[in-house]
Amino acid sequence: MADEEHHFEHKADSGASKTFPQQAGTIRKNAFIVIKSRPCKVVEVSTSKTGKHGHAKCHFVGIDIFTGKKLEDIVPSSHNCDVPEVTRTDYTLLDITDEGFVSLLSDKGDTMDHIRLPNDTALANQLKEGYSAGKELMVTVMSAMGEEQIAAVKDVGPK
């Protein structure tokens, strides 16, 4: 039994392992925080004073980094909040399919075909127009808690 090898695949469905705890009182504006199980960028923080019955409270207003929805949360300043691991990765645009998916090439030579055009119509139009004009485009993909979305487009020049 001791000489058997076990191989486990690490697959986090909920995205909960993609976060780390941070004390609420130390989170500032423009930081990231998880509100209602969604990764958000903090746009407003206000702290109330310690009251008759306990802790000072932090009131967070955040914008969901994928949907753009406004979310709010109130947390005691001494308690921990979940903070998402947010990464930004640059890719070269290879193709845009008729179904609205983009084909991207990483620096390592790997391709990604599962990302859709962004919900932001201005960004999606910039991608489509640049691609149809034959320009070489760099696409920044933001990922957090198991979700990925195109966050920015940069024109590198003609192909």
TrEMBL record:
PROSITE patterns associated with the record: IF5A_HYPUSINE
Gene Ontology MF terms: ribosome binding; RNA binding; translation elongation factor activity
Limits of the Translation initiation factor 5A C-terminal domain: 85-154
Coiled-coil regions, chain positions: none
Any single Pfam family the record assigns to this protein: eIF-5a
Annotated region described as Disordered, given as residue ranges: 1-20
Keywords per UniProt: Hypusine, Protein biosynthesis
Keyword RNA-binding: no
UniProt entry tagged with the keyword Protein biosynthesis: yes
PTM statement from Swiss-Prot or TrEMBL: eIF-5A seems to be the only eukaryotic protein to have a hypusine residue which is a post-translational modification of a lysine by the addition of a butylamino group.
CDD domains hit by this protein: S1_eIF5A
InterPro entries, sorted: IF5A-like, IF5A-like_N, IF5A_C, NA-bd_OB-fold, Rib_uL2_dom2, Trans_elong_IF5A_hypusine_site, Translation_prot_SH3-like_sf
GO annotation, biological process: positive regulation of translational elongation; positive regulation of translational termination
SMART domains xref list: eIF-5a
Bias (Basic and acidic residues): 1-13
Residue intervals passing through the bilayer: none
Function: Translation factor that promotes translation elongation and termination, particularly upon ribosome stalling at specific amino acid sequence contexts. Binds between the exit (E) and peptidyl (P) site of the ribosome and promotes rescue of stalled ribosome: specifically required for efficient translation of polyproline-containing peptides as well as other motifs that stall the ribosome. Acts as ribosome quality control (RQC) cofactor by joining the RQC complex to facilitate peptidyl transfer during CAT tailing step.
Family listed: Belongs to the eIF-5A family.
Name the record gives this protein: Eukaryotic translation initiation factor 5A
